[in-house]
Design brief:
Layout: H1 2-15, E1 22-27, H2 30-47, E2 52-53, H3 64-73, E3 75-82, H4 90-105, E4 111-117, H5 121-125, H6 130-141, H7 144-158, E5 163-165
Parallel strand pairs: 1-2, 1-3, 3-4, 4-5
Helix pairs in contact: 1-2, 3-4, 4-7
């Protein structure tokens, strides 16, 4: 799976503009995938000389959100790892909105590839299951306009062609 995504990233990167600092930006829910799937994916990309932004590259003492936005705007391709708890993270959802905005502005250059890690694409697209539960909580504690932006970004991203990963490796 990681090699398939790495190959797709490499192929898409070769078609994209070479003016960005990062070839790939990985958006993921750390507690779900950091020490397994995402770390292996990141390693596979790096082994293939693909310059990858992952959250531990944020400078210590720096502004987290401003550095994330800068990295998003300075990337060609986005791998969005949708997992069981992705929607429970406001950080992930804000990243996704920013990613989808970049895609809208640069449709011919920016590539977004969703990876559905142990979750059905329809759960993401329609915000059912754990995504429904997460949004019920967000609607109690977050501005309605922002929640709607998150819902729209999830639906748009989940409607893109991507990969589904249901097995352990």
């Amino acid at each position: 799976m990681a090699l398939s995504v790495a190959a797709a990233a490499s192929s898409s990167y070769s078609q994209a503009s070479l003016t960005h600092q990062y070839d790939v930006f990985i958006s993921f829910r750390g507690e779900d995938t950091r020490n397994g799937f995402t770390s292996h994916l990141h390693s596979a990309l790096r082994r293939n000389q693909i310059e990858t932004f992952i959250d531990y590259r944020i400078q210590k003492g720096g502004g987290i959100w401003s550095e994330l936005v800068e990295a998003i705007r300075d990337s060609n391709l986005f791998l969005v790892i949708f997992s069981e708890n992705y929607a429970s993270s406001k950080w992930c959802l804000r990243e996704l909105v920013e990613i989808m905005e970049c895609k809208k502005k640069n449709e011919n250059v920016i590539v977004v590839i969703p990876v559905f890690y142990r979750i059905e694409p329809t759960n993401v697209r329609k915000q059912t299951g754990t995504y429904h539960t997460a949004f019920a909580e967000h609607e109690r504690s977050t501005d309605r306009k922002e929640v709607e932006q998150w819902r729209t970004a999830l639906t748009e991203a989940a409607n893109l062609s991507g990969f589904q990963c249901d097995h352990h490796r």
